[in-house]
UniProtKB/TrEMBL annotation:
Name of this chain's protein: Aldo/keto reductase
Taxonomy of the source species: Bacteria, Bacillati, Bacillota, Bacilli, Bacillales
Residues that coordinate or bind substrate: H116
Site location (Lowers pKa of active site Tyr): K83
Classification via Gene3D superfamilies: NADP-dependent oxidoreductase domain
Top-level taxon of the source organism: Bacteria
Keyword check for Zinc: no
Molecular function per GO: oxidoreductase activity, acting on the CH-OH group of donors, NAD or NADP as acceptor
Signal peptide boundaries: none
Length: 280
């Protein structure tokens, strides 16, 4: 893996996706999201992850245009992800949702479009819509979010295209080993949301000790662990110092022993909903 912020992984269809990006979940539409996205682009981030349900696609779009102009780079240098919400998981409604997201973002196409949650009895129809978008060349890559192994198996029974990405909750207390292995075997890139467990890991003694050894923050150690595990990661922040700090993870490496100690923190503990048991 190239060791710099613009380093990419190659998805199963040959599309290159940055290993590191900015997530904007719960970042408020307007000034807050615009500041975060522009700041990230200014400091070298090349991937932005949003979703219809975050209700900030318009602000993300505005700040992408400003950020690209300020950085003097083209749209093709930025990887933009959005997601279709549960209410739109039919065939026609997912196609329409994609158009709505593009319109709000002010973009001609997305680099990655995901099914946000595996709503029972609905996600296969939505996947057919994403396959259509992909086959028509309207989106560069398609994938899913919050899918367990059995959801993926069900999807793959009828799918023509294997999802290129599965974005799930992943952090040292939820290391999802079986799911990661399954995705690896199927050529599905694993991506982490909530990599810092919404701040709940920042006082963990094991992580603090490892961080101290490297002169790094706990957040940097966790994000480095993601990358060394071959996991794409999208930490969220609205603070410039934190946005810079989160990305400063290319000047150190965790040893095999340190990686194993972090792996050992797993408790199968979630901060978000369980994909087998959600009601939205």
């Amino acid at each position: 893996m190239d060791n710099h912020l613009q380093a990419t992984t190659t998805l199963s269809n040959g599309v290159r996706m940055p290993w590191f990006g900015l997530g904007v979940y719960k970042v408020e539409e307007g000034q807050e999201v615009e500041f975060a996205v522009r700041t990230a682009i200014k400091h070298g981030y090349r991937s932005i992850d949003t979703a219809a349900i975050y209700q900030n696609e318009e602000g993300v779009g505005r700040s992408i245009r400003q950020g690209l102009e300020e950085a003097g780079i083209g749209r093709d240098e930025l990887f933009v992800t959005s997601k279709v919400w549960n209410a739109d998981l039919g065939y026609e409604s997912a196609l329409a949702a994609y158009d709505t997201s593009l319109k709000k973002l002010g973009l001609e196409s997305l680099d990655l479009y995901l099914i946000h949650w595996p709503v029972k009895g609905k996600f296969k129809e939505a996947w057919r819509a994403l396959e259509t978008l992909y086959k028509e060349g309207r989106v560069k890559a398609i994938g899913v979010s919050n899918f367990h192994v059995h959801h993926l198996e069900e999807l793959l029974r009828d799918a023509e295209i294997v999802p290129m990405v599965n974005q799930v909750e992943f952090h040292p207390r939820l290391s999802q080993k079986e799911l990661r292995q399954y995705c690896q075997d199927k050529g599905i890139q694993f991506e982490a949301w909530s990599p810092l467990m919404q701040g709940q890991l920042l006082n963990d003694p094991v992580l603090e000790e490892i961080a101290g050894r490297h002169g790094k923050s706990v957040a940097q150690v966790i994000l480095r662990w993601d990358l060394q595990n071959g996991v794409v990661t999208i930490p969220k922040s609205i603070n410039e110092n934190r946005i810079v700090e989160n990305a400063s993870i290319y000047d150190f490496e965790l040893s095999g022993e340190e990686m194993a100690r972090i792996d050992g923190l797993n408790l199968d503990q979630r901060v978000g909903p369980d994909p087998d048991n959600f009601n939205f």
